[in-house]
Amino acid sequence: MSRFDELIDRRNTQSYKWDVADNELPMWVADMDFQTAPAIIDALKNRVDHGVFGYSIVPEEWYEAYIGWWKRRHKFEIKREWLIFCTGVVPAISTTVRKLTTAAENVIVITPAYNIFFNSIYNNGRNIVECELIYRDGKYELDYVDLEEKCSNPQSTLLILCNPHNPTGIIWTKEQLVKIGDICARNNVTVLSDEIHCDLTLPGCEYTPFASASKVCEQISVNCISPTKTFNIAGLQSAAVCVPNSALRHKVWRALNTDEVAEGNAFAADVAIAAFNNGEEWLEELRGYLAENRRIAEEYIAEEIPALSVVIGEATYLLWIDCRKLGKSSDELAEDIRRKTGLYLSEGCEYRGDGRYFLRMNLACPRSRLMDGLERLKRAVSDL
């Protein structure tokens, strides 16, 4: 029995994901139902036992942990001065949008995409410009012609990239990243790369950090990285922004400090150090478990719910489900499924692009809970 088979009751724990009715099963927001790595729990216990939680600094070990992890896991040599502490990837995205663009300028997003990107753009008074992925034969492709056209508009100054891509599970290849970088560079568009899902790839599938793809990509990018998604510690607010270009880095550093999101709480540095220095064995076990969950879900849907189909992804623990055969938009469909069975999925409409035809299902849960969710989904679709 795997440690990830344990059913942990998260109700009544102030969980955003699990604040639902008793009969409901939440498989929506990207939050795992697993305890984090033992090394992180031990680090937290040690910090709590100290008993004093005053203002904290970012120690040298924090920089070393990030540098070591990306070199070891992703063959990317990060220099110490490139790293800036931040309380989270989303605060970093909002701050960067605010600093590197002006009101009414265009921020390009490759859609369907993580819905909070749109909040960060709208809340800052910028325009969202979508570059829609092309969906063909169950796979997504990037439309480089459309991307070039959107970037060539003088009002377009920033591209938000999700690498790997949420919700489709795409791992962008080095060649794709180089093309994206070249298009953006010749049109003076900065790339803001959200790489929070980078360690949640299928075994044998590795991602390429955007900044490592080419010198061009390195010099035009602001890269958001963190252990929080990988190790299920989002509530501890710990992340980093990696900016190789010194002029760009100064702007981002000033912006993060101006917005007061560049100082960590008493636990933020310790959890990152513990994750990157001592969490690797746990992560490899997790990746294997998630891969099996994905295989089970894909096969179950193919065999038991033929009205649905699945986009084959290589990253994240999120399943992107094509529902267009059912003849309903995903917001209607998600509401019907939740009302009839209690299964709570994410509606693809939130992600724009062709998301109105899709549902997103979170597979990061014990296998018995996954099967419960799949059976509920089957019942709901059968009723439809």
Features:
7-stranded mixed β-sheet; globular; Aspartate Aminotransferase, domain 2; 4-stranded antiparallel β-sheet; 384 residues; alpha/beta; 15 strands; Aspartate Aminotransferase, domain 1
Describe what this molecule looks like in 3D:
By secondary structure, this protein is of the alpha/beta class. It folds into 2 domains: 140 residues, Aspartate Aminotransferase, domain 1 (Alpha-Beta Complex); 227 residues, Type I PLP-dependent aspartate aminotransferase-like (Major domain) (Aspartate Aminotransferase, domain 2), CATH 3.40.640.10. It is built from 13 helices and 15 strands. The strands form 4 sheets. It has a 7-stranded mixed sheet, with helices on both faces. A hairpin with a 7-residue loop joins strand 11 and strand 12. The radius of gyration is 20 Å and the shape is globular.
Protein topology:
Elements: E1 25-26, H1 38-50, H2 60-74, E2 83-86, H3 89-100, E3 106-111, H4 116-122, E4 127-132, E5 134-136, E6 139-141, H5 144-152, E7 156-162, H6 174-186, E8 190-194, H7 215-219, E9 221-225, H8 228-231, E10 239-242, H9 246-258, H10 268-278, H11 280-304, E11 309-310, E12 318-322, H12 330-341, E13 343-344, E14 346-347, E15 358-362, H13 367-383
Parallel strand pairs: 1-13, 3-4, 3-7, 7-8, 8-9
Antiparallel strand pairs: 2-10, 5-6, 9-10, 11-12, 12-15, 14-15
Helix pairs in contact: 1-10, 2-10, 3-4, 3-9, 5-6, 11-13, 12-13
